[in-house]
Design a protein that fits this description.
Elements (H helix, E strand, L loop, with lengths): L1 E5 L10 H15 L3 E8 L7 E5 L2 E7 L15 H9 L2 H14 L3 E4 L8 H8 L4 E5 L12 E2 L2 E2 L5 H13 L5 E4 L2 H6 L6 E4 L20 E5 L8 H9 L5 E5 L4 H10 L4 E5 L3 H5 L4 E4 L9 H8 L4 E4 L14 E4 L6 H8 L2 H6 L1 H8 L4 H23 L1
Length: about 400
């Protein structure tokens, strides 16, 4: 099967769970004998398209036809114009159309579309190429993809989001199948399509952790971007209210925000910067995912469990679908003032150690081969449906 995957970032870009999930899927499918391409964005002043081969996957980098590249400097004054163009970008649609003509994939599988725009779906439809779209964030409803504004989650679309989303919603008529990475996202971000499924993200722990020291108080970890939506300030304040818990923070953020966190954090805090998951997990008893926004899935929770680490997570987005309270972690409500501090005071290193096997067992449901199986079956279902319609 010839499969073309589209995602805004890939390989050379610093990215998060979506980029890594697309990479794992692409390489898993290629290892099964499928002919896999990935089309992604880049910023090149000379506006040239380039291609590279990575792990049997042909990766094509397309220059973005907009007022700036979304993963570089973003002038505040140009953001409204950028989002307006990105709602329906005919130039990017033509560039993708050229790739469709050259590679003639059996399936076009789109993911994060910032920089491409949903206009590329029509190009596939015009060529009778089925389109599968995986919803990984709130892009079709919110230009920022977060539904989070002024320190709080949005309960309904604001007027500007409604306007920007209109062309995107119209474009969904070209979709053959829609995948959501969590049941929460499927319910909260509905997209009409003949086939709708929930397929989670995948992760495999590459290595083995050394035996950990469970003495000297609870060791709590945080892994991810350092920003307001992730609830890192809530976690720091909660750790301060414990007697001996030590907090390890792994991730990067803006210089000003990072300094603010350093000043706010208790002395029992270690800032590790950008490190591998294993470098953090070998130090901690439990991972905290204190998100304030509705995480579409919460892949970092699966990362921790794949290493045998239980997770403390907020009851936001897709996180409750991963956590089995009392078995592989704990849930708390961020809006409850004393919820997280009280929870931290009840968790012991011994309790975390006792959950290790349950964590590993839970993580097996998200192994790359399991997720690749689900996508293979979906692609076959889409192609069979198209064939039946042609008869």
């Amino acid at each position: 099967m010839k499969i073309a995957l589209v995602n805004d970032k890939y390989i050379h870009h610093e990215g998060g769970g979506a980029q890594e999930s697309v990479r794992i899927l692409a390489e898993s499918l290629a290892a099964r004998g499928h002919q896999v391409s990935v089309w992604t964005t880049t910023y090149r002043p000379d506006q040239r398209t380039t291609s590279e081969l990575h792990s049997q996957v042909r990766v094509t980098f397309l220059p973005v036809a907009n007022v700036y590249w979304p993963h570089g400097p973003r002038p505040e004054s140009l953001k409204p114009l950028w989002h307006a163009i990105d709602s329906h970008n005919p130039i990017m649609a033509r560039r993708v159309g050229q790739l469709l003509d050259e590679e003639k994939p059996d399936i076009l599988h789109t993911n994060i579309l910032a920089g491409f725009s949903p206009a590329i779906w029509a190009e596939a439809a015009h060529r009778n190429i089925p389109v599968v779209h995986t919803v990984r964030d709130y892009y079709l409803m919110c230009p920022k993809g977060t539904r989070f504004k002024n320190g709080a989650k949005c309960d309904s679309p604001c007027p500007s989001c409604h306007i920007y989303s209109l062309p995107k919603k119209r474009a969904t008529r070209h979709l053959d199948a829609v995948v959501s990475i969590s049941r929460h996202l499927s319910n909260d971000h509905p997209v009409s399509s003949p086939i709708q499924e929930v397929i989670h993200n995948s992760y495999r722990a590459e290595g083995k952790l050394p035996l950990r020291n469970y003495e000297n108080g609870l060791k709590i970890g945080y892994l991810g971007r350092l920003c307001e939506t992730k609830g890192i300030e809530l976690l720091i304040d909660a750790v301060r209210q414990t007697d001996s818990a030590h907090l390890y923070i792994a991730g990067k953020g803006g210089t000003g925000y990072l300094e603010k966190l350093r000043q706010r954090a208790p002395s029992r805090t270690t800032f590790l910067g950008s490190v591998s998951p294993q470098s953090l997990f070998e130090k901690i008893d439990v991972l905290a995912v204190p998100s304030l926004w509705h995480e579409p899935f919460g892949r970092v929770a699966i990362e921790a469990m794949a290493w045998g680490i239980p997770v403390i997570a907020s009851q936001r987005g897709g996180l409750p679908e991963i956590i089995r309270p009392g078995k592989n972690g704990w849930l708390f409500e961020p809006n409850e003032k004393d919820g997280l501090p009280q929870l931290l005071r009840t968790i012991t290193p011994e309790a975390c150690r006792s959950m290790s096997e349950a964590c590993l067992d839970r993580a097996r449901a998200f192994l790359p081969e399991v997720i690749a199986d689900q996508y293979e079956r979906l692609y076959e279902r889409v192609l069979l449906r198209r064939q039946s319609q042609a008869i």
